[in-house]
Protein backbone atom coordinates (compact mmCIF):
# COMPACT_ATOMS: atom_id res chain seq x y z
CA UNK A 1 0.00 0.00 0.00
CA UNK A 2 1.33 3.46 -0.91
CA UNK A 3 1.87 6.16 1.67
CA UNK A 4 -0.99 8.13 0.11
CA UNK A 5 -3.40 5.20 0.36
CA UNK A 6 -2.37 4.60 3.96
CA UNK A 7 -3.06 8.24 4.80
CA UNK A 8 -6.43 8.16 3.05
CA UNK A 9 -7.48 5.08 5.01
CA UNK A 10 -6.13 6.64 8.20
CA UNK A 11 -8.21 9.80 7.63
CA UNK A 12 -11.36 7.72 7.26
CA UNK A 13 -10.42 5.74 10.37
CA UNK A 14 -9.97 8.98 12.31
CA UNK A 15 -13.48 10.05 11.32
CA UNK A 16 -14.95 6.71 12.38
CA UNK A 17 -13.20 6.67 15.75
CA UNK A 18 -13.98 10.35 16.37
CA UNK A 19 -17.67 9.80 15.75
CA UNK A 20 -17.66 6.83 18.12
CA UNK A 21 -15.98 8.84 20.91
CA UNK A 22 -18.27 11.81 20.31
CA UNK A 23 -21.32 9.57 20.70
CA UNK A 24 -19.93 8.18 23.94
CA UNK A 25 -19.33 11.69 25.27
CA UNK A 26 -22.85 12.73 24.30
CA UNK A 27 -24.30 9.83 26.29
CA UNK A 28 -22.10 10.64 29.28
CA UNK A 29 -23.34 14.24 29.22
CA UNK A 30 -26.94 13.09 29.56
CA UNK A 31 -25.97 10.70 32.33
CA UNK A 32 -24.32 13.62 34.13
CA UNK A 33 -27.55 15.65 34.01
CA UNK A 34 -27.60 17.58 30.71
CA UNK A 35 -31.01 18.07 29.09
CA UNK A 36 -29.38 18.85 25.75
CA UNK A 37 -25.87 18.30 24.44
CA UNK A 38 -23.70 18.70 21.37
CA UNK A 39 -20.21 17.37 20.65
CA UNK A 40 -17.89 18.80 18.01
CA UNK A 41 -14.68 16.92 17.34
CA UNK A 42 -11.62 17.30 15.19
CA UNK A 43 -8.74 14.88 14.79
CA UNK A 44 -5.86 14.44 12.39
CA UNK A 45 -2.23 15.14 11.64
CA UNK A 46 -0.23 18.23 10.74
CA UNK A 47 3.30 18.55 9.38
CA UNK A 48 5.10 21.88 9.08
CA UNK A 49 8.54 23.27 8.33
CA UNK A 50 10.06 26.75 8.36
CA UNK A 51 13.15 28.09 6.66
CA UNK A 52 14.42 31.25 8.37
CA UNK A 53 17.06 33.44 6.71
CA UNK A 54 18.19 30.52 4.56
CA UNK A 55 18.48 27.98 7.37
CA UNK A 56 16.05 25.22 8.26
CA UNK A 57 14.23 26.24 11.41
CA UNK A 58 11.35 24.57 13.18
CA UNK A 59 10.05 21.24 11.86
CA UNK A 60 6.95 19.97 13.61
CA UNK A 61 4.67 16.95 13.42
CA UNK A 62 1.45 16.77 15.44
CA UNK A 63 -1.23 14.13 15.70
CA UNK A 64 -4.26 13.99 17.95
CA UNK A 65 -7.96 14.56 18.48
CA UNK A 66 -10.02 17.01 20.54
CA UNK A 67 -13.69 16.87 21.51
CA UNK A 68 -15.67 19.91 22.61
CA UNK A 69 -18.87 19.37 24.60
CA UNK A 70 -21.65 21.96 24.84
CA UNK A 71 -24.40 21.13 27.34
CA UNK A 72 -27.68 22.86 28.14
CA UNK A 73 -29.78 22.67 31.30
CA UNK A 74 -32.92 24.81 31.10
CA UNK A 75 -31.16 27.48 29.03
CA UNK A 76 -27.98 27.37 31.11
CA UNK A 77 -24.83 26.76 29.10
CA UNK A 78 -21.78 24.73 30.03
CA UNK A 79 -18.74 23.81 27.94
CA UNK A 80 -15.67 21.61 28.34
CA UNK A 81 -13.14 20.09 25.97
CA UNK A 82 -10.62 17.27 26.12
CA UNK A 83 -7.88 15.85 23.95
CA UNK A 84 -7.91 12.60 25.90
CA UNK A 85 -10.11 9.86 24.45
CA UNK A 86 -10.06 7.51 27.46
CA UNK A 87 -13.50 6.87 29.01
CA UNK A 88 -12.49 8.44 32.33
CA UNK A 89 -11.33 11.64 30.56
CA UNK A 90 -14.55 11.84 28.57
CA UNK A 91 -16.63 11.35 31.70
CA UNK A 92 -14.67 14.07 33.53
CA UNK A 93 -15.37 16.48 30.66
CA UNK A 94 -19.08 15.66 30.82
CA UNK A 95 -19.19 16.24 34.58
CA UNK A 96 -17.28 19.53 34.24
CA UNK A 97 -19.56 20.86 31.49
CA UNK A 98 -22.69 20.06 33.48
CA UNK A 99 -21.23 21.65 36.62
CA UNK A 100 -20.46 24.84 34.68
CA UNK A 101 -23.98 24.90 33.21
CA UNK A 102 -25.55 24.69 36.68
CA UNK A 103 -23.58 27.76 37.74
CA UNK A 104 -24.37 29.80 34.60
CA UNK A 105 -27.25 32.26 34.16
CA UNK A 106 -30.17 31.09 32.00
CA UNK A 107 -30.61 32.48 28.49
CA UNK A 108 -33.59 31.44 26.38
CA UNK A 109 -31.45 31.80 23.22
CA UNK A 110 -29.20 28.95 24.39
CA UNK A 111 -30.70 26.23 22.21
CA UNK A 112 -29.44 23.48 19.93
CA UNK A 113 -30.40 23.47 16.25
CA UNK A 114 -32.81 21.05 14.62
CA UNK A 115 -31.21 18.79 11.97
CA UNK A 116 -31.22 20.01 8.38
CA UNK A 117 -30.24 18.07 5.27
CA UNK A 118 -26.61 18.46 4.18
CA UNK A 119 -25.80 18.07 0.49
CA UNK A 120 -23.56 15.00 0.37
CA UNK A 121 -21.86 16.17 -2.85
CA UNK A 122 -20.36 19.09 -0.93
CA UNK A 123 -18.55 16.91 1.60
CA UNK A 124 -14.83 17.44 1.28
CA UNK A 125 -14.13 13.71 1.45
CA UNK A 126 -15.28 13.54 -2.17
CA UNK A 127 -12.59 16.07 -3.13
CA UNK A 128 -9.80 14.76 -0.89
CA UNK A 129 -6.53 14.49 -2.80
CA UNK A 130 -4.71 11.37 -1.57
CA UNK A 131 -1.37 12.71 -2.83
CA UNK A 132 -1.81 15.87 -0.76
CA UNK A 133 -2.86 13.95 2.32
CA UNK A 134 0.11 11.61 1.83
CA UNK A 135 2.88 14.23 1.92
CA UNK A 136 5.53 13.27 4.49
CA UNK A 137 7.94 15.27 6.67
CA UNK A 138 10.81 15.06 4.18
CA UNK A 139 8.63 16.48 1.42
CA UNK A 140 7.40 19.32 3.64
CA UNK A 141 10.98 20.28 4.49
CA UNK A 142 12.05 20.06 0.84
CA UNK A 143 9.15 22.26 -0.27
CA UNK A 144 9.87 24.91 2.37
CA UNK A 145 13.49 25.03 1.22
CA UNK A 146 12.42 25.16 -2.43
CA UNK A 147 10.04 28.06 -1.72
CA UNK A 148 12.85 30.05 -0.12
CA UNK A 149 15.40 29.23 -2.83
CA UNK A 150 13.01 29.94 -5.69
CA UNK A 151 12.48 33.49 -4.45
CA UNK A 152 16.25 34.05 -4.28
CA UNK A 153 16.69 32.52 -7.75
CA UNK A 154 14.40 35.20 -9.18
CA UNK A 155 16.81 37.86 -7.97
CA UNK A 156 19.89 37.46 -5.80
CA UNK A 157 19.04 40.68 -3.97
CA UNK A 158 16.04 38.99 -2.33
CA UNK A 159 16.58 38.01 1.30
CA UNK A 160 14.01 35.54 2.61
CA UNK A 161 13.08 36.19 6.21
CA UNK A 162 10.81 33.14 6.49
CA UNK A 163 9.39 30.46 4.21
CA UNK A 164 6.87 28.06 5.69
CA UNK A 165 5.16 24.99 4.34
CA UNK A 166 2.58 22.83 6.13
CA UNK A 167 -0.03 20.19 5.38
CA UNK A 168 -2.99 19.27 7.57
CA UNK A 169 -5.27 16.28 7.08
CA UNK A 170 -8.01 15.07 9.36
CA UNK A 171 -11.68 14.67 10.11
CA UNK A 172 -14.43 16.61 11.85
CA UNK A 173 -17.69 15.38 13.41
CA UNK A 174 -20.78 16.92 14.99
CA UNK A 175 -23.32 14.91 16.99
CA UNK A 176 -26.13 16.27 19.13
CA UNK A 177 -29.09 15.19 21.21
CA UNK A 178 -31.38 16.84 18.64
CA UNK A 179 -30.37 14.21 16.09
CA UNK A 180 -27.57 15.95 14.19
CA UNK A 181 -24.90 13.54 13.05
CA UNK A 182 -22.35 14.84 10.55
CA UNK A 183 -18.79 13.90 9.64
CA UNK A 184 -16.27 14.74 6.94
CA UNK A 185 -12.59 14.42 6.02
CA UNK A 186 -10.29 16.97 4.43
CA UNK A 187 -6.69 17.83 3.62
CA UNK A 188 -5.11 21.20 2.80
CA UNK A 189 -1.64 22.58 2.28
CA UNK A 190 -0.52 26.05 3.33
CA UNK A 191 2.58 27.92 2.21
CA UNK A 192 3.79 31.43 2.96
CA UNK A 193 6.81 33.58 2.18
CA UNK A 194 8.12 36.80 3.72
CA UNK A 195 11.17 38.66 2.51
CA UNK A 196 12.85 41.92 1.56
CA UNK A 197 15.51 43.06 -0.87
CA UNK A 198 19.03 44.21 -0.02
CA UNK A 199 21.06 46.12 -2.60
CA UNK A 200 24.37 47.23 -1.18
CA UNK A 201 23.68 49.56 1.74
CA UNK A 202 19.98 49.89 0.85
CA UNK A 203 17.29 47.68 2.38
CA UNK A 204 13.79 47.73 0.95
CA UNK A 205 10.50 47.08 2.71
CA UNK A 206 9.12 43.64 3.54
CA UNK A 207 6.56 41.86 1.41
CA UNK A 208 4.47 38.78 2.16
CA UNK A 209 2.39 36.26 0.21
CA UNK A 210 0.55 33.10 1.22
CA UNK A 211 -1.63 30.42 -0.36
CA UNK A 212 -3.76 27.43 0.54
CA UNK A 213 -4.23 24.56 -1.92
CA UNK A 214 -6.37 21.44 -1.76
CA UNK A 215 -4.94 19.68 -4.80
CA UNK A 216 -1.37 18.48 -5.23
CA UNK A 217 -1.37 19.48 -8.91
CA UNK A 218 -1.54 23.15 -7.82
CA UNK A 219 1.40 23.06 -5.41
CA UNK A 220 4.25 23.78 -7.83
CA UNK A 221 2.36 26.54 -9.65
CA UNK A 222 1.46 28.26 -6.37
CA UNK A 223 5.02 27.91 -5.07
CA UNK A 224 6.35 29.58 -8.23
CA UNK A 225 3.68 32.29 -8.10
CA UNK A 226 4.36 33.23 -4.49
CA UNK A 227 8.13 33.26 -4.97
CA UNK A 228 7.81 35.38 -8.12
CA UNK A 229 5.38 37.89 -6.58
CA UNK A 230 7.38 38.34 -3.38
CA UNK A 231 10.62 38.75 -5.33
CA UNK A 232 9.07 41.29 -7.69
CA UNK A 233 7.49 43.28 -4.86
CA UNK A 234 10.68 43.28 -2.77
CA UNK A 235 12.83 44.46 -5.67
CA UNK A 236 10.18 47.05 -6.46
CA UNK A 237 10.42 48.39 -2.91
CA UNK A 238 14.03 49.43 -3.49
CA UNK A 239 14.71 53.03 -4.37
CA UNK A 240 11.58 54.32 -2.64
CA UNK A 241 11.12 58.08 -2.56
CA UNK A 242 8.72 60.35 -0.74
CA UNK A 243 5.02 60.10 -1.42
CA UNK A 244 2.51 62.91 -1.83
CA UNK A 245 -0.23 64.14 0.48
CA UNK A 246 -3.67 64.37 -1.13
CA UNK A 247 -7.29 63.28 -0.86
CA UNK A 248 -8.61 61.44 -3.86
CA UNK A 249 -8.39 58.16 -5.76
CA UNK A 250 -6.22 55.31 -4.53
CA UNK A 251 -5.76 51.96 -6.26
CA UNK A 252 -5.88 48.89 -4.03
CA UNK A 253 -4.48 45.45 -4.83
CA UNK A 254 -6.76 42.59 -3.68
CA UNK A 255 -4.88 41.95 -0.40
CA UNK A 256 -4.94 45.65 0.52
CA UNK A 257 -8.63 45.99 -0.36
CA UNK A 258 -9.46 42.94 1.76
CA UNK A 259 -7.54 44.28 4.77
CA UNK A 260 -9.13 47.71 4.79
CA UNK A 261 -12.63 47.19 3.37
CA UNK A 262 -13.65 43.54 3.71
CA UNK A 263 -13.09 43.36 7.46
CA UNK A 264 -15.66 46.02 8.46
CA UNK A 265 -18.09 44.78 5.82
CA UNK A 266 -18.06 41.23 7.18
CA UNK A 267 -18.09 42.45 10.77
CA UNK A 268 -21.23 44.47 10.18
CA UNK A 269 -23.21 41.70 8.46
CA UNK A 270 -22.86 39.56 11.59
CA UNK A 271 -26.27 39.25 13.26
CA UNK A 272 -24.59 39.27 16.68
CA UNK A 273 -22.94 42.62 15.87
CA UNK A 274 -26.35 43.93 14.79
CA UNK A 275 -28.04 42.65 17.96
CA UNK A 276 -25.37 44.21 20.18
CA UNK A 277 -25.49 47.59 18.47
CA UNK A 278 -22.07 47.24 16.85
CA UNK A 279 -23.03 47.24 13.18
CA UNK A 280 -23.10 50.23 10.84
CA UNK A 281 -25.46 48.23 8.60
CA UNK A 282 -28.06 47.35 11.25
CA UNK A 283 -30.99 48.99 9.42
CA UNK A 284 -29.71 48.66 5.85
CA UNK A 285 -31.32 45.40 4.63
CA UNK A 286 -32.70 46.08 1.14
CA UNK A 287 -30.66 49.25 0.73
CA UNK A 288 -27.77 49.91 -1.63
CA UNK A 289 -24.61 50.04 0.46
CA UNK A 290 -21.89 49.43 -2.17
CA UNK A 291 -22.87 50.19 -5.78
CA UNK A 292 -21.36 47.74 -8.28
CA UNK A 293 -20.31 45.22 -5.61
CA UNK A 294 -21.60 41.69 -5.12
CA UNK A 295 -20.54 39.78 -2.00
CA UNK A 296 -21.00 36.01 -1.94
CA UNK A 297 -20.16 33.41 0.68
CA UNK A 298 -19.60 30.16 -1.21
CA UNK A 299 -18.38 27.23 0.91
CA UNK A 300 -19.50 24.84 -1.87
CA UNK A 301 -16.40 25.66 -3.96
CA UNK A 302 -13.95 22.83 -3.18
CA UNK A 303 -10.95 24.84 -4.40
CA UNK A 304 -11.00 27.31 -1.52
CA UNK A 305 -9.74 26.86 2.02
CA UNK A 306 -13.11 27.63 3.60
CA UNK A 307 -15.00 24.98 1.66
CA UNK A 308 -17.21 22.71 3.78
CA UNK A 309 -20.49 20.86 3.73
CA UNK A 310 -21.65 21.83 7.23
CA UNK A 311 -20.87 24.46 9.83
CA UNK A 312 -19.63 24.19 13.43
CA UNK A 313 -23.15 23.15 14.54
CA UNK A 314 -23.67 20.53 11.82
CA UNK A 315 -26.03 22.65 9.72
CA UNK A 316 -25.61 22.87 5.94
CA UNK A 317 -23.15 25.50 4.71
CA UNK A 318 -24.72 26.87 1.55
CA UNK A 319 -23.82 29.44 -1.09
CA UNK A 320 -25.46 32.74 -0.18
CA UNK A 321 -25.53 36.24 -1.70
CA UNK A 322 -24.94 38.70 1.14
CA UNK A 323 -24.74 41.80 -1.04
CA UNK A 324 -26.26 41.64 -4.53
CA UNK A 325 -25.37 44.38 -7.01
CA UNK A 326 -24.70 46.71 -4.11
CA UNK A 327 -27.87 45.86 -2.15
CA UNK A 328 -27.54 44.30 1.32
CA UNK A 329 -29.65 41.12 1.28
CA UNK A 330 -29.16 39.42 4.63
CA UNK A 331 -27.18 39.10 7.83
CA UNK A 332 -25.42 35.88 8.81
CA UNK A 333 -26.66 33.79 11.75
CA UNK A 334 -25.63 30.88 13.92
CA UNK A 335 -28.21 29.16 16.12
CA UNK A 336 -27.79 31.56 19.04
CA UNK A 337 -28.24 34.77 17.01
CA UNK A 338 -31.11 33.13 15.12
CA UNK A 339 -32.88 32.37 18.40
CA UNK A 340 -32.41 35.98 19.52
CA UNK A 341 -33.75 37.26 16.21
CA UNK A 342 -36.59 34.70 15.98
CA UNK A 343 -35.31 33.41 12.65
CA UNK A 344 -33.27 30.50 11.24
CA UNK A 345 -29.52 29.96 11.23
CA UNK A 346 -27.87 30.66 7.89
CA UNK A 347 -25.27 27.95 8.58
CA UNK A 348 -22.51 30.31 9.68
CA UNK A 349 -21.46 28.83 13.02
CA UNK A 350 -17.66 28.91 13.18
CA UNK A 351 -14.94 27.58 15.46
CA UNK A 352 -13.17 24.50 16.68
CA UNK A 353 -13.55 21.96 19.47
CA UNK A 354 -12.00 24.17 22.19
CA UNK A 355 -14.81 26.73 22.39
CA UNK A 356 -18.54 27.21 21.86
CA UNK A 357 -19.61 28.08 18.30
CA UNK A 358 -18.85 31.56 17.03
CA UNK A 359 -20.15 33.33 13.94
CA UNK A 360 -18.45 34.09 10.64
CA UNK A 361 -18.30 33.56 6.89
CA UNK A 362 -16.64 30.57 5.24
CA UNK A 363 -15.36 31.44 1.74
CA UNK A 364 -15.91 35.01 0.59
CA UNK A 365 -15.98 36.13 -3.03
CA UNK A 366 -16.32 39.78 -4.08
CA UNK A 367 -17.34 40.47 -7.67
CA UNK A 368 -17.96 43.53 -9.79
CA UNK A 369 -21.58 43.56 -10.92
CA UNK A 370 -20.84 46.03 -13.72
CA UNK A 371 -20.50 44.37 -17.12
CA UNK A 372 -18.75 47.45 -18.54
CA UNK A 373 -16.54 48.01 -15.49
CA UNK A 374 -12.79 47.71 -15.18
CA UNK A 375 -11.35 44.50 -16.60
CA UNK A 376 -8.14 44.06 -14.64
CA UNK A 377 -5.23 45.66 -12.82
CA UNK A 378 -3.97 47.42 -15.96
CA UNK A 379 -7.34 49.05 -16.62
CA UNK A 380 -7.55 50.10 -12.97
CA UNK A 381 -4.16 51.86 -13.19
CA UNK A 382 -5.22 53.52 -16.43
CA UNK A 383 -8.41 54.76 -14.77
CA UNK A 384 -6.37 56.01 -11.79
CA UNK A 385 -4.15 58.06 -14.09
CA UNK A 386 -2.00 59.66 -11.41
CA UNK A 387 -1.99 58.65 -7.77
CA UNK A 388 -1.11 55.99 -5.23
CA UNK A 389 -1.29 52.21 -5.76
CA UNK A 390 -0.94 50.06 -2.63
CA UNK A 391 -0.39 46.32 -2.53
CA UNK A 392 -0.72 45.76 1.23
CA UNK A 393 -2.28 47.65 4.12
CA UNK A 394 -1.18 47.53 7.75
CA UNK A 395 -3.17 49.39 10.35
CA UNK A 396 -6.31 49.52 12.46
CA UNK A 397 -9.83 48.94 11.17
CA UNK A 398 -12.89 49.56 13.34
CA UNK A 399 -15.37 46.92 12.26
CA UNK A 400 -18.27 48.74 13.95
CA UNK A 401 -17.77 52.19 12.41
CA UNK A 402 -15.77 51.29 9.30
CA UNK A 403 -13.02 53.80 10.11
CA UNK A 404 -9.56 52.68 9.02
CA UNK A 405 -6.13 54.20 9.41
CA UNK A 406 -2.75 52.68 8.66
CA UNK A 407 0.30 52.38 6.48
CA UNK A 408 0.46 51.62 2.78
CA UNK A 409 2.96 48.83 2.17
CA UNK A 410 4.69 48.02 -1.12
CA UNK A 411 3.22 51.27 -2.41
CA UNK A 412 3.81 52.63 -5.92
CA UNK A 413 3.30 56.02 -7.52
CA UNK A 414 1.42 55.95 -10.80
CA UNK A 415 1.55 58.57 -13.55
CA UNK A 416 -0.48 58.40 -16.76
CA UNK A 417 -1.58 54.89 -15.77
CA UNK A 418 1.97 53.55 -15.41
CA UNK A 419 3.90 52.70 -12.23
CA UNK A 420 6.89 55.03 -12.20
CA UNK A 421 8.46 54.50 -8.77
CA UNK A 422 8.19 53.03 -5.31
CA UNK A 423 7.20 55.36 -2.48
CA UNK A 424 8.07 55.36 1.18
CA UNK A 425 5.38 54.26 3.57
CA UNK A 426 2.49 56.71 3.61
CA UNK A 427 -0.57 56.85 5.84
CA UNK A 428 -4.08 56.10 4.58
CA UNK A 429 -7.36 56.86 6.31
CA UNK A 430 -11.05 56.86 5.54
CA UNK A 431 -14.35 55.19 6.29
CA UNK A 432 -14.95 51.92 4.47
CA UNK A 433 -18.75 52.23 4.39
CA UNK A 434 -18.77 55.81 3.06
CA UNK A 435 -16.12 55.00 0.45
CA UNK A 436 -17.86 51.81 -0.72
CA UNK A 437 -21.09 53.76 -1.08
CA UNK A 438 -19.26 56.46 -3.03
CA UNK A 439 -17.06 56.23 -6.09
CA UNK A 440 -15.51 52.76 -5.96
CA UNK A 441 -14.72 50.75 -9.09
CA UNK A 442 -13.92 47.02 -8.97
CA UNK A 443 -12.20 44.90 -11.58
CA UNK A 444 -13.81 41.82 -13.08
CA UNK A 445 -10.50 40.02 -12.53
CA UNK A 446 -9.99 38.66 -9.01
CA UNK A 447 -7.19 37.10 -6.98
CA UNK A 448 -7.20 34.54 -4.17
CA UNK A 449 -6.33 36.17 -0.84
CA UNK A 450 -5.56 34.08 2.23
CA UNK A 451 -6.68 30.91 0.50
CA UNK A 452 -10.38 31.46 1.19
CA UNK A 453 -11.29 34.88 -0.25
CA UNK A 454 -11.53 35.82 -3.93
CA UNK A 455 -11.02 39.60 -4.18
CA UNK A 456 -10.83 42.10 -7.09
CA UNK A 457 -8.57 45.12 -7.54
CA UNK A 458 -10.33 48.34 -6.56
CA UNK A 459 -10.08 52.01 -7.41
CA UNK A 460 -11.47 54.01 -4.48
CA UNK A 461 -11.99 57.77 -4.59
CA UNK A 462 -11.95 60.00 -1.50
CA UNK A 463 -9.16 58.31 0.46
CA UNK A 464 -6.95 60.54 2.60
CA UNK A 465 -3.24 60.05 1.87
CA UNK A 466 -0.61 61.58 4.16
CA UNK A 467 3.06 61.45 3.21
CA UNK A 468 5.71 61.49 5.91
From TrEMBL:
Residues 247-466 form the Metalloprotease TldD/E C-terminal domain. One of its GO terms (biological process) is proteolysis. SUPFAM superfamilies: Putative modulator of DNA gyrase, PmbA/TldD. Residues 133-232 form the Metalloprotease TldD/E central domain. InterPro entries: Metalloprtase-TldD/E_C (IPR045569), Metalloprtase-TldD/E_cen_dom (IPR045570), Metalloprtase-TldD/E_N (IPR002510), PmbA (IPR047657), TldD/PmbA_N (IPR035068), TldD/PmbA_sf (IPR036059). This is Peptidase PmbA. Gene3D superfamilies: PmbA/TldD superfamily. It comes from the Bacteria. GO terms for molecular function: metallopeptidase activity. The lineage of its organism: Bacteria, Pseudomonadati, Planctomycetota, Planctomycetia, Planctomycetia incertae sedis. GO terms for cellular component: cytosol.
